[in-house]
Amino acid sequence: MVATESLADTIRERLEEEESLELPASLDEYFEVLDELEGKPYTILFNQGILTATMSQASEPHEIIIGNLLYLFNALFRDDETIRVMGSARIVYVPDCDRSFNPDALVVKGPTELFPRDRKMAATLNPWLLVEVLSASTEGGDYAEKLPCYKTLPSVRYLLFVHQNQPYATLFARTKEGDAWLNHDSNGLDATIRLDEGAVPLREVYRKISFPEIPKKPTKKRKR
Asked: Are strands 198-201 and 42-47 parallel, antiparallel or unpaired?
C-alpha cells in the first residue's frame, strides 16, 4: 500500500518552490496541520474551507514595533491578573466568518476560551484586544478583511492598527453599550493611544524606529 502524502508534507514541499499556496481542507484538517507544523516558519490560515500557507518573514521595523507594544501592554496591565498579553504565535478563530487569523499581538481578559478539540493546537475565541501592524502590502487586506471579522467577536473591546512606515495608529473601541464602535487616530510621535485603562505613547511604540526624512520644498526666491 502506498502511503498518502499528508497536507503538512504537501505544504513543506511546495513552499520550497512557491511563495504561497492554497489547498482545500476541513477545519479539523487545518488544526491537524497546525499540530504537525508547530514551530515551523509558515503562516497557515483557514478561510471557509480553504487552507492558505505562506513563508513567514516580517520586516525589522514590524518586529521592533511588536516588541515595543508587548512591553508597553505588559507594563500597562501588570497589576491586573485577569489580563494576559500574547504575541503572534496565537491563532484566533472567528466563527461568524469561518476564518482563522494570526494577529500581530493579542490581549485576553478573563479565562481563555479555545476552539473545542482534543489535540493540543487550538485557537483563541475570546480576544479582548487585537493588534495589527500595517505595511503598504497588508494595509488594504487588514482593513477590508480582518477588521469586519474581528468586530463580530463579542469579547473584543479594542482593535489597534499601527502603521510601520510612519508614526500613525488607529484605535477602534467598542462602546460600553456594545452596539457601536468609535475610532481615534493618533498621529505623530507626540500623540498617544488612549485606552480606558491608560495611555500608550506613540514615541514608545516607535522607539528605535527611524523614519525617512521628508525632503523640504525649495524656497522660492523673491524677484526684486
From this structure: unpaired
For CA atoms 24, 26, 29, 33, the dihedral sign is positive
Set of cell numbers at residue 78: 501588570
Alpha carbon distance 160, 145 (integer Å): 15
Q: Which residues are registered as beta bridge partners of 47?
A: 50, 99
| Per-residue pLDDT at 2 | 40
The rounded distance, in Å, linking the Cα atoms of 92 and 159 is 13
Calculate ∠ Cα 63-61-88, nearest 5°. Answer: 25
Q: What pTM did the predictor assign?
A: 0.86
Per-residue pLDDT reduced to its tens digit, 118-174: 666 689 999 999 999 998 878 888 899 999 999 999 999 999 999 999 999 999 999
Local structure of residue 5 (DSSP, 8 states): P
Cα–Cα distance, 61 to 165 (Å, whole number): 8
- Is the separation of the CB atoms in 77 and 85 below 8 Å? yes
